[in-house]
Records
---
Amino acid sequence: MRLSRFLGFYPNLDDYMAGGYFNLRESVFLSAPPVHRDFLQPQEAEKVQLMMRMDFPTMHLFQMSHAERNRLLEVVLFYYRLHLPDFPELKSLSVLQALYE
């Protein structure tokens, strides 16, 4: 997700509020869901905000279940496909999912 800063669609974390939605198209947090379907419910939006706060030294402080990590991986890939139409299908996705087990 941090790479998205250099690609022009980094999430605006200044707008984050607990219980808010994350608009995947506009990369912003909202208090109400947008009119399209490309958004995250508040529970998943919170995970995006948490992930953006993580770095290698603090990673151990953030606990996520196997299902949450896999879902977050799916969200990140979908997010990239929304913003980069030519983003290829990752052949290593199964490898990444296996690492999260």
---
Amino acid sequence: MSSLISGAGFALLGASVAQPLFRGGQLKAEQRAAVAAYDQAHATYRDAVLTGLQNVADVLVALDGDARTLHERTEAANLAKTTYEITSQRYESGGVSLLELLEAQRRQVSASLDEIAAIADRYADSAALFQALGGGWWTQPPPTPPPVTPPQQP
């Protein structure tokens, strides 16, 4: 009878040792799957960060160009205004024709419109920078944490 009990104990011991050996392949596969999921999540996060940084850099370059354009168009508008004022004084004294006065006025209005367009471009790119930096986060409600479920008893 004791040999039967010791034989059964050996069988149980053998089965309990063999079970992790047979599951070893499954555990390795699960580990590889977890590592692959981590690598994929890391790559996705890295791509999102790089894309965000590229967007910010692109908008900053656009803003720099907008600043130069606005400066040039402001100077052109000021010059056109000065030219119109001089032409207006010359018209009043009889030195130029009405056609020349109207042409100076047309150039002044055109230069002013170009300046306004440059200001609008600058505002649009400023808004794009704000968006690229993640603006608007304070207008969204805070995220609600997921509900906590108590662990289940076996």
---
Amino acid sequence: MTKRAERAGRPARATYECDVCGHQPPKWVGRCPECGEWGSVVETATSAPAVGGKVVPARQPLEPARPIATYSVAPARARPTGVGEFDRVLGGGLVPGAVVLLAGEPGVGKSTLLLDVAQKWAAGDPEAGPALVISGEESVNQVRLRAERIGALHERLYLAAETDLSAVLGHLDAVKPGLLVLDSVQTISAPGVDGVPGGVTHVRAVTAVLVSVAKERGISVVLVGHVTKEGVVAGPRVLEHLVDVVLQFEGDKHSSLRMVRGLKNRFGAADEVGCFEMHERGITSLPDPSGLFLNRHAEPVPGTCVTVTMEGRRALVTEVQALIGASVPGSPRRTVSGLDGARLAMLLAVIQRCRPQVRLHDREVFAATVGGIRVVEPAADLALVLAIASEPLQLGIAADLVAIGEVGLTGEVRRVGAVPRRLAEAARLGFRYALVPPGTGPAASGSVPEGMRVREVANVVEALHWAARVSAASV
């Protein structure tokens, strides 16, 4: 017997797969080398691969290929859900047959948001079909209580509690919805699939079946997913490739602000951000969220400055604040809230070098954003420098001044992107002065928002000088 025949006659061999991340090590190990979880590697039996180089016979296709121009685009047009910020992230609404994965931390408000989306869908166009919500984590009574609290009751909104994929498909046959919300995909088990519900094998099998059903019947499907301790979507990486849209639901439990961020979108821009506000009666869209991140002062106030950050394609006017504490021996504290601690340490060293009279090496420094927003982009460096330096100098920063720019190690102000869009948003909210990096002011953009004076500053010292002049003119 030849070696090829021996290989072809081999029985099924055992393979090993991590039930958390899907990694396949060559042998069983107690700890997954990919994700670090203990006891997550399980044995899965697979058949030996076929050999011999046989050619697969051709079969008659279900539908013959046609010229691309003969296909209609009407079935692929997005249908608005009625929740403006959700539609903004999706690119206009839900496309029939699209599968959306919404991931987020427990308790952040995913179920509340999608229940509101389902109610708006049910109250919308009757031709779009009813909405079906299937809960695998809560009972129907618990979901009904939440729906009553947020006002999400409608006769065309159907509800069921299931954890079996076959039962979910049975509900689809009975209700024939236009929108399916499954909360969550990790709680559904697939019949005949090895492993435990919520594991890699089950999640992959359930998602594959629902994607196939959505494409075949033209149903918009929204899957709720869990996240790992690192904040990324839980489950195998193939899960994100199976679905059409991946959204991340972010928010601090101690803040009312919630954000839906697009990570992948086959039907629109993948860098859009939707803003929401969580309150006792549910969750509402925030088409103009900048007011949450500002404390408008009547007079110039030391230790505070306003900047404009970009969240996706959206410009948000944000206020940063700084407080310089007492001088302490040893290592003083550097505390941040909503900012990057390493970035703060670097900017403190830059300020100390550019303005030696501002002694910060032995002082406690506290820096924070207003409204619970997290700012990590370098464009906020200049505003943070002005807020920090103005506090010990007792320099009140004008309330109608915005500062935009990245600060380098030598104190130079570097260029950032989307400056015209940032200035337009600041002008819309009534700001009259702006400090920007060289090459991004009136000469570069060609136009300045009406009623706004823009000044290019080359370094931190020049920025402090012009901030003082603007503050003096505002008094």
---
Amino acid sequence: MLHVVCLDSKNVITNHRPIFVGTLNASLIHPREVFRFAIDNSAASIILVHNHPSGDPKPSREDIDITKRLIEAGSLLDILVLDHVIIGNDSYRSLKDMDVLG
């Protein structure tokens, strides 16, 4: 499940909600749905959060690719993607901390 967390210009959370529910090993994420929610909530930036049912929070190639795509889309809309956090069994990985966001 992918959650989008909306933040204002002071990085205060203004709203959040699940946007996509995936299958056991896949999730179809479209920038349109992510940013529709962000725009509706006047977000200055967003944080993406999703879980890996396997329990391993290591980002997949697809996780990295969609994050980069969302960063590009957000750039066009002037909405920053601050991080993408993947949750696993009692642990998490931050793509920002891993220097994946660029």
